[in-house]
Records
---
Amino acid sequence: MTAWGARLAGVRGVLLDISGVLYDSGEGGGKPIAGSVEAVARLKRSGLKVRLCTNESQKSRGRLVGELRHLGFDVSESEVTAPPPAACQILKERGLRPYLLVHDEVRSEFDEIDTSNPNCVVIADAGENFSYQNMNKAFQVLMELENPVLISLGMGRYYKVTSGLMLDVGGYVKALEYACGIEAEVVGKPSPEFFTSALQEMGVEAHQAVMIGDDIVGDVGGAQRCGMRALQVRTGKFRPSDEHHPEVKADGYVDNLAEAVDLLLQHADK
C-alpha cells in the first residue's frame, strides 16, 4: 500500500472548510479557488459523504450558500455546519440571554433569542462592529455577572480574502479573557463538540472521516484531536511554516482541493 493509501484508506466521509479551500471571500461574493467547483462535484458524485464545516460568522448560512451557488458550487444550507445555529441551541438550552458582539449580517440568526438584560456575551467575527465602545460594553456585561459566560463563534487568528489577510475573532476573545480573567467557550472549530456535531450530521465515525482545511490549528489540529484524519491545502491562509508547526502535523499537505479529491478518490475506498 502506498503512503497515501495508508493515510486515506477507509474514509467514508469528507469535511470541507469553505473559506480558503473552496473560495476566497471578498468583494462581489469572492472568487472560487482554481479547480474547487469541479472537485466538490466529483466528491458528491463519488458516493463519499460530504459536509461543509465552517467558522464563517460574518454571513448567515443562507447568504453564504447563495454566494457559493452563484460561484458554481452545488451545495445547500442543510449541508453546512456553522457556529451561529449551534450557539443558538446552547443559548436556548441554558436559558442564556446574550449581548451580541457579532456582524450585522448574522444578527438574523439570533432573531428567536431573548437579548434583554444580558447574562452572557456572544462574540463572533464582528468586522467593523469591533469598536472600543462595543468591546467595552461586552467587558462591562461580563464583569457585572457573578458567573460570567463568554461564548465565541470560532477562535481563528486570521483568514484570507481576495484583498489579503484579515484579523479574525480570536484576538478579540483573548482581550476579553485577559481583561475579565475568564476562559471563553468556543462554538466552532477547533471545538471537539463542533466536529462531533458535523460527524453526526454526516453519519460517519471519526476514524472514517477526513477534514480538508487551510488552518493548521483550527482545521487540522481540531479534527485530529477528535480522531479524524486531516489534510491541509496550500491555499487560503496556508503559510509555508505550517508544514513545520511545533505542535500539529497534517496527515498530508496538498496544493489545493482538487489534488486532495484526486487522492481521496484513488485511495479512500481501499
---
Amino acid sequence: MRSSSSMSLAGSRGSASVRLVSPPACPFASPVDAAVEYLMVKKDFQAALDTCEKGLESLGSSAEQEENCFKYAELKAALTIVGIQALAELNQWRGVLSWVLQQYGETEKIPAKIIQMCILLYVKVGEQAVMKDAVCDWLHCSGSMTQSGFSTVAELYFLHILIPMGHTTEALELLESNVGRVAFSDEQIQAVCSLVDIQNEKNAASSNSNPESVAVVATTSTSQQERSNQRLKSIVRLLYRGLSVASVRIRSISMHRVFLALMLVYLLLVRIDPALPSAFPWLLQLHRLLQQTWNTMFGPYYRANNRS
C-alpha cells in the first residue's frame, strides 16, 4: 500500500482539492489508506464507512497524540471526507450533516473543505435548505474567517442556497456584514447584487402569475363570453321576429326582387368579386342557400298568391 493518497472533490461552483499525505511516523495513516481502498478499488462502501468511523474513534480516544502527530487534523478531515463519500454511495446522504457534526461536535470546528463538500452534496440532491442554518452559523464564526476556503464557502452559500431559495433580503444583509467584506471583493459584491436583482424580478413575475390571478382572468373572460352569447341570441330573436313580420306582408312584393336584393346584400357584405373564378363555388352555395330559404319561408305564400 502506498504511503500517500490523493482525492479530488469537484462541484459546479467551488471545488476542494485535498492531497492527503500519510507520513510513516503517524500511526493513524493506515485507516485512511484502507478506507480509500475500500471506496475506490473494492467498491465496498459499507466497509469504507466502517473503517472511517473506527479511524475517527481512534483519533478521538488518542487526542493526547495530537501535538506529536503533525497530520492529525488532515487525517481527521481525510477520514471524514471518505466517510461522506461512502454515505453518499450508500444513499444515506440525508444523515451526512449530522454525521459530520457528530465527528466535530460544533459547526464552527468543521474545516472549510468539508463544509464545501456538504454544500455540493445537498445541492446535487436538491436539498440545499438543509445546509442553510449550518453554513450561516459557520460563516459568522470568527475562527472560520481565517480559513483559506472561507471565500469559497461564502460563494457557494450565496449562489446555491440563498439566491435560489429566494432569500434575497438576507443575501443583501449578509453582503453588508463582515462576512461579505471578508469573503468578496468590490467587483464580486456588485456581481452578487446583480444576481439578487435578477432573482427579485423572477419572484415578482411569479407572484403576478399566481393561480388566483389566472382564475380571475379566466372568470372575466367567461363572463364576457356569456354576455356576447346573450347579445347574439337577442339579435337572432329580433331577426326572427322581423322575418316573421316580413313574411306576412311580403305577399304584395315580387319574390324575385326580394331574392335578388338578398343576393346583392350578401355580395356587398362578404365582398366577393363575381368575376373571379374562386367566387363561383361561393355563388353556387349562396344560390342553394337562398333557394332553400325561398322554399321554406316564402314558397307557400307565393303559391297561394298565384292561385288567387
